[in-house]
Amino acid sequence: MRRIKLPVHVAFIMDGNGRWAKRRFRPRAFGHKMGVQNMTKICTHAFRLGVRIVTVYALSAENLMRPKEELDELFDLFRSYFGKKRERLTELEVKINVIGDITVLPEDIQEDILRVTEETANYSEGLMNICINYGARQEIVRAVNEAVSHGRFVDEASFKNFLSTSGIPDPDLIIRTGGEIRLSNFLLYQAAYSELYFSNKMWPEFSKRDLEKAIENYSARDRRFGNVRGNDS
Ligand code: FPP
């Protein structure tokens, strides 16, 4: 890749697994399976390029309303990703952080997640946030309630500490695949000044080169954060 300004934090909305599978006359579960494989490939590449923080939207709070059969298939993928195939994750040597209310997951998966987060807690090569049963509105309401329960008035700086992303810099770049142009309740507070990039590719077919193109596109943007001149130009 030519000399470029790298984003520190890239977040992904990995949309289009179901449509990708349907176009190939395969079940949706196959699309999710290939989606997980691609997630590993793309996140690995992002870290190799020098991105420090990667966040993936693995399951939204709203996704939990999907038919039980599809959820069971997704849970099986979580089971293998955080369980028996967890080396794929741990060998990245980045710290794994799960964001969202995972108490709705079957207990064995919760235990697997806990083990992976413990095993990777001291890795400092990068940080991978995996959002599961996550919704930004729910996160903001929970954060407000927590601040209130502490009897606190908050300002922008202190409010951030009540969010699930406390201590993590906001995403510089949010990439959504699958052709839809919306955020779908993802990191709404944190995305205030994120650069957004939408790809028509379905997630399983989003390639390393596509990631590089997205980063090149980001690199050429003038980020002014509401000011007149870019802060990082
Ligand atoms: C959207 O595609 C994707 C999801 C609902 C789940 C995405 C999850 C993964 C790729 C990986 C799961 C993560 C882990 C950690 C194992 P869609 O089904 O909405 O696609 P469609 O819009 O084409 O129907």
TrEMBL record:
<feature type="binding site">
    <location>
        <begin position="182"/>
        <end position="184"/>
    </location>
    <ligand>
        <name>substrate</name>
    </ligand>
</feature>
<comment type="similarity">
    <text>Belongs to the UPP synthase family.</text>
</comment>
<feature type="binding site">
    <location>
        <begin position="16"/>
        <end position="19"/>
    </location>
    <ligand>
        <name>substrate</name>
    </ligand>
</feature>
<dbReference type="GO" id="GO:0016094">
    <property type="term" value="P:polyprenol biosynthetic process"/>
</dbReference>
<dbReference type="GO" id="GO:0045547">
    <property type="term" value="F:ditrans,polycis-polyprenyl diphosphate synthase [(2E,6E)-farnesyl diphosphate specific] activity"/>
</dbReference>
<feature type="active site" description="Proton acceptor">
    <location>
        <position position="63"/>
    </location>
</feature>
<dbReference type="InterPro" id="IPR036424">
    <property type="entry name" value="UPP_synth-like_sf"/>
</dbReference>
<feature type="active site">
    <location>
        <position position="15"/>
    </location>
</feature>
<keyword id="KW-0808">Transferase</keyword>
<dbReference type="InterPro" id="IPR018520">
    <property type="entry name" value="UPP_synth-like_CS"/>
</dbReference>
<comment type="subunit">
    <text>Homodimer.</text>
</comment>
<comment type="function">
    <text>Catalyzes the condensation of isopentenyl diphosphate (IPP) with allylic pyrophosphates generating different type of terpenoids.</text>
</comment>
<keyword id="KW-0460">Magnesium</keyword>
<feature type="binding site">
    <location>
        <position position="15"/>
    </location>
    <ligand>
        <name>Mg(2+)</name>
    </ligand>
</feature>
<feature type="binding site">
    <location>
        <position position="195"/>
    </location>
    <ligand>
        <name>Mg(2+)</name>
    </ligand>
</feature>
<dbReference type="Pfam" id="PF01255">
    <property type="entry name" value="Prenyltransf"/>
</dbReference>
<feature type="binding site">
    <location>
        <position position="28"/>
    </location>
    <ligand>
        <name>substrate</name>
    </ligand>
</feature>
<feature type="binding site">
    <location>
        <position position="66"/>
    </location>
    <ligand>
        <name>substrate</name>
    </ligand>
</feature>
<dbReference type="GO" id="GO:0000287">
    <property type="term" value="F:magnesium ion binding"/>
</dbReference>
<dbReference type="InterPro" id="IPR001441">
    <property type="entry name" value="UPP_synth-like"/>
</dbReference>
<protein>
    <recommendedName>
        <fullName>Isoprenyl transferase</fullName>
        <ecNumber>2.5.1.-</ecNumber>
    </recommendedName>
</protein>
<feature type="binding site">
    <location>
        <position position="176"/>
    </location>
    <ligand>
        <name>substrate</name>
    </ligand>
</feature>
<feature type="binding site">
    <location>
        <position position="32"/>
    </location>
    <ligand>
        <name>substrate</name>
    </ligand>
</feature>
<keyword id="KW-0479">Metal-binding</keyword>
<feature type="binding site">
    <location>
        <position position="20"/>
    </location>
    <ligand>
        <name>substrate</name>
    </ligand>
</feature>
<feature type="binding site">
    <location>
        <begin position="60"/>
        <end position="62"/>
    </location>
    <ligand>
        <name>substrate</name>
    </ligand>
</feature>
